[in-house]
């Protein structure tokens, strides 16, 4: 990787080019912003839907099968097909991408949160009941805090795969960094553009993952081993 | 806008037109491409991941590597590999598409092969060793048969995922059922909505069909006493954490 600092553009088609990054910083920043915002909103909405679903599956065992089953079937639907189902109704806007991303993230979060809740030791649960904790109080004071590692695993998986999935939004013109990758491919195989999009997308996934690990450490100071 | 029928109605009409099935580049052609690409990718993935996974499981080392591979591929967008690989020595054509899809088939295959060997009853392993079997013989005669249900689980996860991601090959003109969706988007939503929806249904139907069929296979190769016990373990978490991106 050699950084040519000369003014003239490299005549070849290098994999990495600061020239490209400098000349197109506005486009790149806009793509990063769209990517991050789609990811953030999707994961946030998915959590708001998935947490109540998980608690329902945890409280009412007969509901666990259907809830995990339905989210599992949605997860099996290929991303391109899912966007194809949504686009004719919601149009080719960012909303289509957002809805698809939320549906995908649901399974990952629900499954891990349910697993986390089920790992709460029965003795702890019984002790809480013996102390007169009601269902809701036990949920917020005992079950959810102890399920934090599971919740966090789900969040991390959902976040990382959502970052990668955003790129499929290219289909409707809102693929964040995917737009760079795809444009580079169509634009006479402009390697620097493809590579910039790819590297930034992977970097965003890694960054958000590390951020979540850090948050996990902060909210579970009692687990010496940190978050696994 | 109102002149057009609902997208769902259009989709049914589109699927009912025999020409859309038999035309060059029609559904049957695309389905054939889709299956060819997917099969090649899964086979390639198995050839790479199974020997490595079984060996790592046998030696009991490399658990960290298995997790690392899973996590790393989770963060790489399929679109990126699909566009980058043709620019490497692989050249254009079907090869880079197959390789790109195979990369995403590796994590579930690898993790399940590894877990499958690892979970083999240590007593069975010790007994085999006590009978004088060599390391390779233990792997072949004891650990491998015990790992078959896990291999099948990994195969199902990998195959379904490859079939799902093969739809993205259409972004790089790689063929497959995704082309139908992309062509639909090439028209406008109003004109192509039916085709988009129909293409989506075909892709999703194929993926779900593969899931159901391969789940059946997985059940068949799992000895009956193990079926209930293994429920939680059949899908090791890292192996299943695969996206369709």
From TrEMBL, chain A:
The record's subcellular location field reads:
Cell membrane; Membrane
Q: Which residues form the ABC transmembrane type-1 domain?
A: 32-212
Question: Record's Gene Ontology CC terms?
Answer: plasma membrane
Q: Which GO terms describe its biological process?
A: glycine betaine transport; transmembrane transport
Swiss-Prot/TrEMBL keywords: Membrane, Transmembrane, Transmembrane helix, Transport
Give the CDD domains listed for this entry. TM_PBP2 (cd06261)
Instruction: Give the UniProt family note.
Output: Belongs to the binding-protein-dependent transport system permease family.
Tell me the Gene3D superfamilies matching this sequence. Answer: MetI-like
Q: Mind telling me which Pfam families this protein's record contains?
A: BPD_transp_1
Q: What is this protein called?
A: Quaternary ammonium transporter
TrEMBL record, chain B:
Chief localisation class: membrane
InterPro entries in the record, alphabetically?
Answer: ABC_transp_perm/SBD (IPR051204), MetI-like (IPR000515), MetI-like_sf (IPR035906)
**What membrane topology does this protein have?**
Multi-pass membrane protein
Per the UniProt entry, what are the Gene Ontology biological process annotations, in alphabetical order? glycine betaine transport; transmembrane transport
PROSITE patterns xref list? ABC_TM1
Spell out where the chain crosses the membrane: 37-57, 64-85, 97-115, 150-172, 192-214
Query: Keyword DNA-binding, does the record have it?
Result: no
Q: Does the keyword Protease apply?
A: no
Listed under GO cellular component are:
plasma membrane
Per UniProt, the keywords (alphabetical) are: Membrane, Transmembrane, Transmembrane helix, Transport
Q: Where in the cell?
A: Cell membrane; Membrane
Q: Which domain of life is it from?
A: Bacteria
Indicate the segments forming the ABC transmembrane type-1 domain, all copies. 31-214
The family assignment reads: Belongs to the binding-protein-dependent transport system permease family.
Protein's UniProt name: ABC transporter permease
Recite the lineage of the species.
Bacteria, Bacillati, Actinomycetota, Actinomycetes, Micromonosporales
């Amino acid at each position: 990787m050699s950084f040519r600092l000369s003014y003239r553009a490299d005549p070849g088609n290098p994999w990495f080019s600061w020239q490209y990054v400098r000349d197109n910083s506005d486009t790149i920043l806009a793509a990063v912003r769209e990517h991050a915002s789609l990811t953030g909103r999707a994961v946030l909405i998915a959590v708001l839907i998935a947490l109540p679903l998980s608690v329902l599956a945890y409280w009412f065992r007969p509901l666990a099968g259907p809830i995990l089953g339905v989210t599992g079937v949605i997860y099996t639907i290929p991303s391109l097909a899912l966007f194809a189902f949504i686009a004719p109704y919601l149009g080719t806007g960012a909303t289509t991408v957002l809805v698809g991303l939320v549906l995908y993230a649901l399974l990952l979060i629900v499954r891990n949160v349910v697993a986390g809740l089920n790992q709460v030791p029965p003795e702890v649960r019984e002790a809480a009941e013996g102390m007169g904790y009601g269902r809701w109080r036990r949920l917020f004071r005992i079950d959810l805090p102890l399920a934090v590692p599971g919740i966090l695993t789900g969040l991390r998986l959902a976040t990382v795969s959502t970052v990668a999935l955003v790129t499929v939004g290219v289909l409707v013109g809102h693929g964040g960094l995917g737009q760079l990758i795809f444009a580079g491919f169509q634009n006479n195989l402009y390697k620097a553009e493809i590579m910039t999009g790819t590297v930034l997308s992977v970097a965003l996934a890694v960054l958000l993952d590390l951020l979540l690990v850090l948050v996990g450490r902060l909210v579970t100071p009692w687990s010496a081993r940190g978050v696994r | 806008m109102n002149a057009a029928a609902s997208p769902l109605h259009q989709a049914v009409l589109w699927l009912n037109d025999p020409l859309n099935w038999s035309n060059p580049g029609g559904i049957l052609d695309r389905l054939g491409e889709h299956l060819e690409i997917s099969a090649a990718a899964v086979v390639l993935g198995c050839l790479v991941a199974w020997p490595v996974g079984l060996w790592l499981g046998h030696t009991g080392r490399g658990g960290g590597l298995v997790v690392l591979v899973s996590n790393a591929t989770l963060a790489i967008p399929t679109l990126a590999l699909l566009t980058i690989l043709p620019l490497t020595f692989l050249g254009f054509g079907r090869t880079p598409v197959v390789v790109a899809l195979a990369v995403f088939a590796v994590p579930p295959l690898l993790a399940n092969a590894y877990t499958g060997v690892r979970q083999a009853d240590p007593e069975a392993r010790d007994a085999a060793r006590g009978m004088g079997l060599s390391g390779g013989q233990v792997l072949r005669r004891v650990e491998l048969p015990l790992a078959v249900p896990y291999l099948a689980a990994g195969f199902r996860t990998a195959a379904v995922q490859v079939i799902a991601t093969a739809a993205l090959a259409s972004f790089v003109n790689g063929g497959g059922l995704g082309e139908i969706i992309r062509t639909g988007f090439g028209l406008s939503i109003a004109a192509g909505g039916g085709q988009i929806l129909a293409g989506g249904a075909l892709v999703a139907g194929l993926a779900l069909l593969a899931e159901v069929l391969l789940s059946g296979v997985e059940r068949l190769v799992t000895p009956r006493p193990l079926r209930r016990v293994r429920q939680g373990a059949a899908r090791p978490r890292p192996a299943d954490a695969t996206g369709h991106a």
